[in-house]
Design goal:
Elements: E1 7-11, H1 16-27, E2 31-36, H2 39-51, E3 56-60, H3 69-79, E4 85-88, H4 106-134, E5 137-142, H5 155-175, E6 180-187, H6 193-206, H7 210-215, H8 230-237, E7 248-251
Parallel strand pairs: 1-2, 1-4, 2-3, 4-5, 5-6, 6-7
């Protein structure tokens, strides 16, 4: 029970990596506020968290809308006045509209950078003051190995994730003396609904099967599962990670080794 009675906020927590993290936190004793766009997915995760004996609140929210951010913060704080852990997981992938830079849709560029970079900035800005005041907190930004290398036909995604690593490092420096730790997790290709759409695009573009594409991503020759990302999030949320801040850690099957 490494997170017993800690309170966590997880965005994009209805499915995929966010869901796996929210449930892993609850198994370690944390109470969790889950934000996501799809009501039935939110309700399902909340029900499972409560079944583990922890408190939970679900918030249906579309974080692509700036006006939705403050109501999310207000609702979280009305249930849990003290927030210990923030996981910025919600994001937009390149699969929605993959195009080369010269043909890239400007509105999709703006939307991607807003959700993937500006939203984490705004949520950090909202929840950090109480963490600093209580002299303990954990912020975990879910980035991607695409934050460390380019992505063909996904310039906005890669740019936003590079930016989120920079934001992680800057925030870590600013709050290090206050007991707050800020780190990032960089998953490699992970079996989520967002990735599966991109796989179909790339398999057709490259003229190979989806299976061949999956096996080409890393030395272990398979996609990662969301549940393989969650244990690192638990560690970064716990007391055990007190000596670590400003890091961007890969869980990628060896596709990147730096």
């Amino acid at each position: 029970m490494r997170l017993k009675d800690k309170v966590a906020v997880v965005t994009g927590g209805g499915r995929g990596i966010g869901r796996a993290i929210a449930l892993a936190f609850a198994r370690e004793g944390a109470h969790v506020a889950v934000g996501a766009r799809t009501p039935n997915e939110v309700e399902n995760v909340v029900s499972q968290i409560k079944g583990l004996g922890c408190k939970a609140v679900g918030i249906t929210v579309d974080l692509s809308q700036r006006e939705a951010i403050q109501p999310l913060v207000d609702k979280v704080l009305s249930y849990f006045p003290v927030i210990d852990i923030l996981v910025n997981n919600a994001g937009i992938g390149s699969s929605e509209d993959p195009k080369p830079i010269v043909e890239f849709d400007d509105e999709f560029w703006e939307a991607t950078l807003f959700v993937n970079l500006t939203v984490p900035y705004l949520l950090m800005k909202a929840f950090l003051p109480k963490m600093i005041e209580q002299r303990w907190g954990r912020i975990i930004n879910i980035v991607s190995v695409s934050g460390k290398r380019g992505v063909a036909f996904g310039g906005a995604y890669s740019a936003s994730k590079h930016g989120l690593i920079g934001l992680t490092r800057s925030a870590a420096l600013e709050v290090a003396s206050s007991g707050v730790r800020v780190n990032a997790i960089c998953p490699g290709p992970t079996r989520t609904s967002m990735l599966l759409k991109r796989l179909q695009f790339d398999s057709e573009r490259r003229g190979i099967s989806v299976k061949e594409l999956e096996e080409s991503f890393n030395p272990i020759r398979r996609l990662l599962e969301p549940e393989e990302i969650a244990p690192l999030a638990v560690y970064l949320a716990s007391e055990e990670s007190g000596g670590m801040t400003g890091q961007s850690l890969n869980v990628c099957g060896g596709s990147i080794m730096y």
